[in-house]
Amino acid sequence: MQDNQSPKTDAEIRKEKIRAKYQSAIPDDIDIIPATPQENFFEDDNEKRVAFYVRVSTDDPRQTSSFELQKGHYTEMLNRHKSWRLVDIYADEGISGTSLKHRDAFVKMIADCKAGKIDLIVTKSVSRFARNVVDCIGYVRQLAAMQPPVGVFFEMESIYTLNDSSEMSLSFMSTLAQEESHIKSRVANDSIEKRFRRGLFLTPPLLGYDQDEDGNLVINTEEAKTVRLIFFMYLYGYTCRQIAEMLTSLSRRTKKGNTKWAPGSILQILQNERHCGDILARKTWTPSYLDHLPRKNRNNHNQYTRKDNHEAIVSRDDFIAVQRLISNAKYGNKGILPELKVITDGGLKGFVSINPRWAAFSADDYRTACESVYDETDKPEPKPFEVEVQSGDFDLRGFEVTRAQFFDNARKLCVTFSTNNIWFSTECIRKLKKELYVEMLIQPHEQLLAVRPCAKECRNAVRWAKINEANYNPRDISGAAYLSTLYEIFGWNSELRYRVRGVRRKKDNESVVIFDMRDTEIFIPDVASESCFNDNNLPVNANPKNTVVAFPPSWAGNFGNKTINVRRQ
User: Which terminus of the chain has fewer CB atoms gathered within 10 Å of its CB, N or C?
Assistant: First the structure.
């Protein structure tokens, strides 16, 4: 009879050999060397160097009992285990477990483990060790990887980290501990929000005030003298450092009773609105319950304010003046409250000098300063411009003067604005005889900007040029202190950049460049370019570098301004 079975492939033959090898009996010549049994925390009697870790989360006096009970419990536990040798009881009191920040005892304990001083750490629960999953698991693994390994025993959960089966349970319990902190944080924030809505504000210790039995702020006469001195000295031009040195030399006491003052403490006192009788709640907020780092509240949460909440130590006017001084100190201003400088006569009458280091001037301040040099019959008003022509001249009525913006930009007088800086073209520098410093002036009613050379010592001087191998090149002018105000005066969009053409005017060897801020080019994102659309033809954020130049709608349908009215002889 013919055999119909097909021959076995090489793969099938190799599989049969593998099966036969594993189905054979254990050879008699193999000796097994037993492994060291896994350590059992409850049955191990080997001598160990033991550390206990104790923590309570607040420094409230009522928590002291919990703190002492934990330490007493571990002392008794040590006495029950004759093979244990105490290294130390590491205790953090009044510290949160969601972060290692300020947990000095915990950090010292880990350092002692790395130094080989500890074999075992015992603590009450996972939440006592850490409420942060990353910290908890990370440190447990780090300790287990040491030679010799260091184990952690959590009493309440009966978890010993050197057991192979411990990590899953530990991960679950540490996640619960972290979420418990999250819930507590949300509950605390909700409670604070409800208190503030009802006008129940928190009143931490504040220099110059005590609290009555209802928690209201009451002036402390002696401390109030120090507060007034701080405000008056700052208004008279003293710096925070100088004030701190003066108070230290006078042995004036801080709220905590110290006689050594720091500039930072002075600044905090100067910025606290409670000294003028007002109250502003929720100045800061904490984005993460894990690191507890406060952030300035920039409309992230509701803020609550109440004027005349309590008796003031300094007047509100003095307080506002101090805030303006503080606000402008970062822009280089070192003087007392300045005034706007306005030109009183001549071709630039009504132009106001822009103070580049003072952020407190508003759009209305510039308008008021401009108007101050005019009387009721002399206020600037746009007037039609007329010229006389002679017989035989070309009649240009009905024609338009084409805008310079429609021609090449090379060697043109122009200035570009953003909300951060100003940049003048090289031609502007050349027209003003390559001066390094200029003064910028604004005519807010006529929407004009003027630039003229000035000495470096001029109070409002800005450097607009730099020298590179004998060449004068434009330099970015920082405008953080005043550009937002200019944008408001000109009615511009703060998210866009603007470019304006200028003309030079010269009289008696004095040159000035004038820019009409109503005739602007606008740089807008090139949303029509292909790079601004995804594969589904949906618009995405445009690259800031991809911009197109746009013009005002009033420019549509014409090439420039109508020619002037002509009156013939």
Answer: N
The answer on 222 and 169 residing in a single domain is: no
Question: Mind giving me the DSSP string for 364-394?
Answer: HHHHHHHHTT--TTS-------EEEE-TTS-
Q: Are 231 and 275 in contact (CB under 8 A)?
A: yes
246 domain residue, yes or no: yes
CATH number of the domain encompassing residue 143: 3.40.50.1390
Question: Kind and range of the H or E element at 468?
Answer: strand 465-468
β-strand pairing of 159-160 with 151-154 = antiparallel
β-bridge pairing 465-468 and 414-417:
unpaired
Cα end-to-end span (Å), the chain = 135
Angle between helix axes 104-114 and 133-144 (nearest 10 degrees) is 20
Contact 472, 534 (CB under 8 A): no
Residue 122 makes CB contacts below 8 A (sequence gap 6+) with 50, 51, 52, 53, 74, 77, 152, 153, 155
Are both 379 and 509 inside the same structural domain?
yes
Q: Which helix (H) or strand (E) holds 473?
A: strand 471-474
Domain that holds residue 153: 48-180
Radius of gyration over alpha carbons of the chain, in Å?
39
Q: What gap in Å lies between CA 351 and CA 373, rounded to an integer?
A: 10
Let me know: does 316 contact 276? Beta carbons within 8 Å: yes
Q: Which residues does the chain have with pLDDT short of 70?
A: 1-5, 24-26, 35-44, 56-67, 94-102, 131, 199, 283-294, 301, 328-338, 376-410, 525-569
> Residues 281, 196: contact at Cβ < 8 Å?
yes
**Residue 22, domain member (yes or no):** no
Q: What is the pLDDT of residue 366?
A: 92
Contact 352, 366 (CB under 8 A): yes
Q: What is the pLDDT of residues 358-395, one digit of tens each?
A: 777 888 989 998 998 887 666 655 555 455 556 656 55
Tally the domains of the chain. Answer: 3
User: How many residues appear in the chain?
Assistant: 569
Residue 428 tokens read as 């502007």
Task: Please check whether residues 213 and 163 belong to one and the same domain.
Answer: no
User: What's the rounded Cα separation, in Å, for the pair 77 and 90?
Assistant: 15
Q: Are residues 453 and 511 in the same domain?
A: yes
| Predicted pLDDT of residue 108 | 92
Query: Cβ atoms within 10 A of the Cβ of 303, count?
Result: 13
Q: Based on the domain organization, do 133 and 92 belong to the same domain?
A: yes
Residues 524 and 376 in one domain: yes
CA–CA distance, 29 with 278 (Å, rounded to integer): 91
**226/367 same-domain check:** no
Q: What is the pLDDT of residue 544?
A: 47
227 and 140 belong to one structural domain: no
pTM, to two decimals:
0.45
CA distance 100 to 276: 38
Q: Which phi and psi angles does 317 have, rounded to 5°?
A: -60, -45
**Contact indicator for 497, 521 with CB cutoff of 8 Å:** no
Could you tell me the CATH number of the domain that includes residue 241?
Answer: 3.90.1750.20
Residue 172: predicted pLDDT: 80
Extract the tokens encoding 469.
Answer: 């191998």
pLDDT at 98: 45
Characterise 340 by phi-psi region: left (phi > 0), alpha (psi -120 to 50), beta (else): beta
